Amino acid sequence: MSATGNPVMALRGVCAALGARPVLRGIDLEVVGGEVVALLGANGSGKSTTVRAAVGQVPLTGGELELFGKPLRRFRQWRRVGYVPQRSTATAGVPATVREVVSAGRLARRGLRPLGRADRTAVARALDLVGLADRAGDSVDELSGGQHQRVLIARALAGEPELLIMDEPLAGVDLASQQILADALSEEVSRGSSVLLVLHELGPLAPVIDRTVVLRSGRVERVEHPEQLHDLACHPLDAAGRLPGAAEAPKIETGLLT
Ligand SMILES: Nc1ncnc2c1ncn2[C@@H]1O[C@H](COP(=O)(O)OP(=O)(O)OP(=O)(O)O)[C@@H](O)[C@H]1O
């Protein structure tokens, strides 16, 4: 992976409240160009609120947030950002095909112009990346929950974002499809994209992730290299039943963060 050192996203001392409840209490978080960062933490630690704040859906009560070097309030280049919300049913009941939903991911680039060749190519590529090319003509209502999630990921990928933000993209996605998504992310990163993901387990994504940031009660508790995490899915125990290197570094029990 080839991180460039220029932050594509920077949160400094970010605070936010939901209703009367202070939820983010001074988050410092950077994603640099070409980097894949996983945001971990227990239920309610503020992961979703952090990414929703980053895409302007939750107003800040303090701190600073920049996208591509611009303060959020002046940032207009939303076509550079792809966002996959936490498992949503945004397209449920909508009489649209898989291809039509994924094509909506081109809107920020093409506006209301009809789909051109570049749009169609990007949509076909995105469908292919998530393994749904053969379902392109089906109604989204005929899909399972996990397939639906993959459609939403394809919609974000179709916009060819430079920064992809995904909130629990693996929720309800089977292991084979998680591997497909890991390959799709690898491909995006090799094209220079940066990624911020909310996860509960790294699973098949572990090899793609450069850095993990653990939240607790609306603050960054730890920043780790994924190899320092205790994630049984990606760090099998040794013959003695210990994690490799267990004595050197305290491990984060990601399974217990859920
Ligand atoms: N609409 C709301 N109004 C008030 N408080 C809220 C609202 N939505 C979430 N919260 C609170 O904000 C805190 C952070 O929620 P958030 O969804 O960011 O956590 P999370 O780390 O993403 O959790 P999970 O792993 O369960 O998805 C929680 O304590 C939650 O109860």
UniProtKB/TrEMBL annotation:
InterPro entries: AAA+_ATPase (IPR003593), ABC_transporter-like_ATP-bd (IPR003439), Metal_Ion_Import_ABC (IPR050153), P-loop_NTPase (IPR027417)
Protein name: Metal ABC transporter ATP-binding protein
Organism: Streptomyces tardus
GO molecular function: ATP binding; ATP hydrolysis activity
Signal peptide: none
Family to which the UniProt record says this protein belongs: Belongs to the ABC transporter superfamily.
Segments forming domain ABC transporter: 9-242
Keywords, ordered alphabetically: ATP-binding, Nucleotide-binding, Transport
One Pfam family it belongs to: ABC_tran
